[in-house]
Amino acid sequence: MTPQELKASILQLAIQGKLVEQRPEEGSGGELLERIFAAKNVKYAKGAKKNSRAETPRRRGKADSLPLREEIPDSEKPFDIPESWVWVRVEDCMSNRTGLAYNKGNLDIHAKNMVRVLRGGNINDMSYSTKPDDVMISSEFVKEDLFLRRNMIITPAVTSLDHVGKMGRIERDYADMVVGGFVLMLIPHLNNDVFSKYLLYACSSKYFRDCCRGIVNKSGQAFYNLSRGKMMELILPLPPLAEQKRIVAKIEELLPYIDRYEKAWSKLEDFNKRFPVDMQKSLLQMAIQGKLVDQRPEEGTGEELYRQIQTEKQRLVKSGKIKKGKPLPEITPDEIPFDIPENWKWVRIKDIATKITDGTHHSPPNLEKGDFMYVTAKNIKDQGVLLSNISYVSSAVHEEIFARCNPELGDILLIKDGATTGVVTVNNLKEPFSLLSSVALLKMPKSISAWYLVYVLRSDLFYKAIRAQMKGTGITRVTLKQIENFVIPLPPLAEQKRIVAKLEELLPLCERLK
Question: Where are the beta strands (DSSP E) in 50-134?
């Protein structure tokens, strides 16, 4: 059960008379209603203004006297209540009025006495709060009877559907705070703390909020108007005041526990959301630290593999297939982030790559018509190169780009510039295509598992290095030089393949948890 469901359940028990026991000596809801009517009669006798439009046609008699209420038919009653309770309409308990109407020009006037204007966004779940961006208006535009008073209940009159029915109770008199014209003030006829708190909880119940949502009118694309007249016609269960006091006390006893439960629930929800991603990170970290699969002496060492790769690269240089690169600096102890197995070796990516480059640095023409696909960062995904929204270039443009960057099946493609920097995959396309400079191309000898290197580059080892290099620059970019000099752990080829197989077995399980 979620915290919201638990709170809703408690409020529902409260308004059904199931949260505390009934005591005959406390009287009845009907007796309380007569007391409320007496207080309401006093208001009208003093010439108080009637604010409920729904009230007039339902009652007959002199303007300064309120006759007995009409009985609510059983067909309107949504659930059973105790015999000592009574069903009442909202207007039997409260009157309503809208808040302060003002124009933007009023807000340009600054005076010694400024008044805060609460809007719908200030009303939370059974509470309200001020905000730094609240509207402030000179007191000269505010009538005395609009200031918020103790025991009033405020609710948005125009808001999104999710916020319809949110209620906040005013806990003290204000001389510097009102609500705006799109907020309703519900004013209990009986100015009593217990009564107003009970009304707050009753009106905050799922039953009543659903009723409010059922009487709204759509206003524009995102807002709904709460009908004041129809709201006054909604019904609420009314227990004796003494029982209300015990209901309020029980709810206020339970709410702190619900708050604690909500915090624990939120932590658990956050953990559940993070768990699949954290698990993926942990698996990748274990993989590149040599802790995901066992080491086998018969598979050789990373040092032996490294020497084999250097021999192969020298052969390619002699045959003119690759250019001889400048010697790289020795790897320093400061560059080694963690321990690896004894049969592994720390290397720079350029030490083992046969080519590291990127695509064209110019936006080629004819991006919609041509014979060759033109791959950009938007096409590079974890699972490979996706051809949706693919562009094309002419043969002439392709040949110019392909002379610099010739992606082939099995090469590694890494986004090095833009919002998706760091996304890396293995090329799955057999057809030749051109690349934009935002994508780096890494060619590896057959003695390196391309997918092993991809998983290394997907680990936090690479991401943290990127973030460290970009810290404070505000730029999302990694250069070819940074890629070339990046230090990675190198296990024997057979172990690389076993690591990839184990990750391909476990990572999909993490995806299923999302």
Answer: 86-89, 94-98, 114-118
Q: Give CA–CA dist 33/71, Å, rounded.
A: 13
Exposure of 427 by Cβ count < 10 A (0-12 exposed, 13-18 middle, 19+ buried)? buried
- Asked if residue 299 lies in contact with residue 344, where contact means CB atoms within 8 angstroms, the answer is no
Cβ neighbours of residue 121 closer than 8 Å, sequence gap 6 or more: 131
The pLDDT score that the predictor gives to residue 67 is 46
Using a cut of 0.70, tell me whether the model's pTM lies above it.
no
Report the length, in residues, of the chain: 514
Domains and CATH numbers, the chain: 3-264 (3.90.220.20), 277-512 (3.90.220.20)
Which residues have CB under 8 Å from 481's CB, separation 6+? none
Given the DSSP bridges, would you call strands 433-435 and 372-375 parallel, antiparallel or unpaired?
A: parallel
Contact between 335 and 325 (Cβ < 8 Å) = no
- Sorted by sequence, the CB contacts under 8 Å of residue 356 that are 6+ apart come out as 349, 350, 440, 441, 442, 443, 480, 483, 484
What DSSP assignment string belongs to 249-283?
Answer: HHHHHHHHHHHHHHHHHHHHHHHHHHHHHHHHHHH
Q: Read off the amino acid at residue 374.
A: Y
- How many of the other CB atoms lie within 10 Å of CB of 317? 14
Contacts of 417 (CB under 8 A, 6+ apart): 377, 437, 438, 476, 477, 478
Count of H helices and E strands in the chain? 15, 23
How far, in Å, CA of 255 to CA of 252, rounded? 5
Q: Cα–Cα distance between 336 and 332 in angstroms, integer? A: 7
- Helix, strand, coil % (nearest 5) of the chain? 40, 20, 40
d(CA 261, CA 163): 23
Burial class (CB in 10 A: 0-12, 13-18, 19+), 253: exposed
**Nearest Cα to Cα of residue 212 among 251, 155, 129:** 155
Alpha-carbon torsion, ordered 430, 433, 437, 440, to 10 deg? 10
Note the pLDDT tens digit of each residue in 137-163. Answer: 999 999 999 999 999 999 999 999 989
Per DSSP bridges, beta strands 355-358 and 391-393 are: unpaired
Could you tell me which residues come within 8 angstroms of residue 136 by beta carbon, excluding any fewer than 6 positions away?
107, 114, 115, 116, 117
10-24, 318-332, 494-508: lowest mean pLDDT where?
Answer: 318-332
Angle between helices 193-203 and 241-288 (to 10 degrees): 50
Q: Whole-angstrom Cα distance, residue 352 to residue 338? A: 20
Three-state DSSP class for residue 487: strand
